[in-house]
Amino acid sequence: MLECRNLNIHYGKLDVVRDVSFEVEAGELVSIIGGNGAGKSTIIDAISGLKKITSGTIRFLGNSIEHMSSHEIVNLGIIQVPERRLVYPQMSVLENMEMGAYRKEARAVRRKSLEFVLELFPDLAVRKSQMAGTLSGGQQQMLAIARGLMSVPRLLLLDEPSLGLAPLLVEDIFKAILKLNARGMTIVLVEQNVYLSLAHASRAHVLEEGRITMSGPGKGLLEDDYIRQAYLGI
Question: What is the pLDDT of residues 121-177, one digit of tens each?
Fold first, then answer.
């Protein structure tokens, strides 16, 4: 479904992503793990069209998208749930979700999508009229994911969905992600919670200083001595 080849991305003269290549098959949950500043979010932004690559190719369903604008990429069904949630604080929960159903394909099934996301996140169902800015951090993350799902994604990009959340809320968010993947949704997950990311990923990539240094099945990487020492403290 998604093919990234030899991606190089710069911020000014700084090499942020260096010769990165990976693939995502339909129905997979692929995780990208790494420390702060490794370049994880930059890759997600490049796929979304929010950051232009210096060189390389990004192909979605066989078509090159690296030169497309972000709204064109959204219309293909590539939907990003951004880091730090970025909900519209002065709009209600329902209005935030409706903003996700902007593209033509999503508008046609808006009612069905709304029923689905409220079933997935029942906390939001009882807060539809509440201003998004008054929600807790965990509820705002649920809302950000729900808004993304209202766009009817073919490929869902999740950027640090557990950032700043309490452990119990992290578990709730990951349960929702796993339910989505079990229903066949293709997901690329950028996440600092290494254990949960690897435990449930079809495949995973370790990004260090802008380069992929290790790749493999998620559970296999969990057993790697380097991963256990460097990322899990074991």
Answer: 999 999 999 999 999 999 999 999 999 999 999 999 999 998 888 888 888 999 999
Shared domain for 60 and 93, answered yes or no, is no
Q: What is the residue whose two structure tokens read 């009882």? A: 126
Question: Are 2 and 46 spatial neighbours (Cβ–Cβ below 8 Å)?
Answer: no
Distance CA 204, CA 35 (A): 14
- How many domains is the chain built from? 2
- Structure-block tokens of residue 82: 């951004």
* Full-model pTM: 0.94
CATH number at residue 204: 3.40.50.300
- What stretches of 183-217 show up as alpha helix (H) in DSSP? 194-200
Show contacts of 169-178: CB within 8 Å, 24+ apart. 169/137, 169/138, 169/141, 170/196, 172/138, 172/142, 173/138, 173/141, 173/142, 173/145, 174/200, 176/120, 176/121, 176/142, 176/145, 177/29, 177/145, 178/29
Residues 182 and 67 in one domain: yes
Residue 6: domain span? 1-77+156-161+176-234
